[in-house]
Amino acid sequence: MRSDPNGSGKTGPGPVAKATEPGPVASGGSDEAADLARARRQLLTGGSETGPGARNPAGHGRRLDAAALRHALVDLHEFWLTTKGAELGIKPDSGFALVAVGGLGRRELLPYSDLDLLLLHDDMDPAVVAQVADQLWYPLWDAHIKLDHSVRTIPQALQVADTDITAALGMLEARHIVGDVELTNLLISGVRRQWRTDIRNRFDGLIEQTRSRWERSGEIAHRAEPDLKSGRGGLRDVQLLNALSIAQLTDGMPGLGPESPGGGLALAHRRLLDVRTELHRVAGRSRDQLRAQDADEIGAALRIGDRFDLARMLSDAARTISYSVDVGVRTAGHALPRRGLARLRRPPVRRPLDEGVVEHAGEVVLARDARPAKDPGLVLRVASASATTGMPMSASTLNRLADNAPELREPWPKEALNDLLVMLGSGSRAVAAIEALDRTGLWGRLLPEWGAVRDLPPRDAVHTWTVDRHLVETAAYASGFTTRVARPDLLMLGALLHDIGKGRGGDHSVVGAELATQIGKRLGLWPSDVALLTAIVRHHLLLPHTATRRDLDDPETVERVVEAIGGDGVLLELLHALAEADSLATGPGVWGDWKSSLIGELVRRCRLVMAGEVLPAPDPLDPEHVALAASGGVHVALVPADSPHTYVVTVIAPDQRGLLSKAAGVLALHSLRVYSASLGSAEGSAVNSFVVSPRFGAPPQAGLLRQELIRALAGELNLLEMLTAKEEEARESQRVAAVEERGEAAVPVQYAQAPPRVIWFDTASPGEVILELRAEDRLGLLSRLADAFDTCGADVRWARVTTLGSSVIDSFCLDLGGGDTRASREQVESAILGVVPLTKPKKQEGSGGE
Questions:
Q1: Where are the beta strands (DSSP E) in 258-404?
Q2: CA distances (Å), origin 835, targets 325, 679, 717, 808, 830
């Protein structure tokens, strides 16, 4: 059977046909490539012979390392093909050129990879072409060397590249071996020009093909037996980046440098190549999937260590590549040439998100006046904005922060801790934000203890994720349980740190508790909160281990749990929520009805033993404020608080219905975020103090706030309508950005991670109740809640408002007018649930708390 001169695939071996016309070929026997095959075997076994006349680049009689082996294989095959081509008359001006694609084209030839060759000809006589092809291919087949070949003219090759993305990607990596170099140059320049010209039409298909490959092959960083070639973060992804670079859409090495945790894209690429090289050598054949039984041998060959060390290195490399691909694809999408009416589209606007942080072209970037070298909290504000909006952080922004942002002083400012909590409270959106910070070295600056768990593989097969990703996933799940607990901030921090003691030897709960104490102090938590965070980490396995391994009917079982947690009911509920989040983040089937019921019963019995509950209580009033209240009139004061960018706004005015709603609404309209509030009354006046932080720039003057409040009380401002319009404006801005930059029809609703929860407490006074609301924050929430109380005829006697990240814990003492009936409570509850953020429907896609 003769080679098809215009064919695109392999032709099986058979008797070599004689050409009907003499061509520029030299005769040869069927064993011409036997020396090549023998030299390949000797390279793999450490032999000294490298082929007929070939040099041995690594010396004689020793085993080559992975990189040297690839280089030697490339040299060996190039020598044979060059020599053979010369024998066949494939020389300059011959009208023929032999071109390498695939591994040989990239100079990354692996021990058992196919030899991918393209025989180009300048529209030569088909008989001559067939004879040359036969004389070239058959010796390789006879030597059992795997060959993927094609024979084409340049127009034929360009036509194939134009219709087949896979073929085009291969030809983008083409490299001249022997023959007419002008033919090769015409092919390479033609394919690349064609690729650049038509990239807009092919980009969507290229990305769709990539995502389909990821779905089939999985994620290398978190697979027990990863596909090194086609998995997410694998070698195909590096080729994708090269293709986007050739299209002049990216710089080919986006987002990461050698100082990043993964050592940069180039190092990650070499590491994957080395592992795949040793995988071929160990398996004795071409293989892309790393089997568990081969991991120890490969780790030893590469001098990495055992299979766990190898898995950690692979995770590091794959996540580095994955991040680079995300950046590269996003950058390429923005750089695509526009056509038609798209050319007339307005440039993307810069929409403010936070102090020094804006949205631009669907990414979170620094404002023009941002000064990262003088603003340590900027890193967390950028990450928080990314997580809450779902928009990625710009690679250039992250690089600028990595180069210039100083360390946060210890203890952290309250605003920095709040931004961290907001990010953690965003559920699955926090995963991408933390991954981006980690790959660029910023996460390790915030939490130096993270290095010991970064990319650390689990020792138990039931775990889906590496230890560091498991911690982030647990925090994402925990964000969906924040309304179950009185301290959502400590729940999310405990979830993030519960396994931080792994990778250091010893009991990870004990080691982790010591680290949690260290971290809690750095974050600026109160000493009592540091102790509670430490206890969460120390006892995070207490409930699941006790419930599944002990007899719950034995009174000593419950007493031991109560004793271990010091009879602390808040700690008990935190451990209960963390146990579920931890199990859900571990892997499928770890959390179920059986485990849930056992832990729930253990918690119920512990509560019975610890019976007793402390009611919320009002904060004491400042005597100066009481004196001012006695003087009457409307007073608004704004003074700096005990941390930078934080202020205390005190509003004193004659007590009247609607005052709280209007005061809180004025603050929200002026972009003042309320961290906490204490609301009371004295001498016939309301005394309301708010701890606030301006979202942008400096706060407004107290006089302006007073004027706006007086106008609102006079009915000149409809604050609720204005707040709703401000929310709609922000939502519309996101929708326009999504349509223009990402082609999405609409912006998805930003649902709350956890369902709201209302808790009622009775007091000794008739008609008076205490309502505690646990929910997710929104613009002007306090104003809306107060208006809902007014609508229901419920008078707020005092209140304590606390915002912890994106969660609120608000306690209101309500006078229901002597009609403390079930109907009154239901009316109030229905009203306030109508103004809190919507809860995400169940069974939504996404990680963690989604």
A1: 350-354, 357-360, 363-366
A2: 41, 20, 20, 13, 9
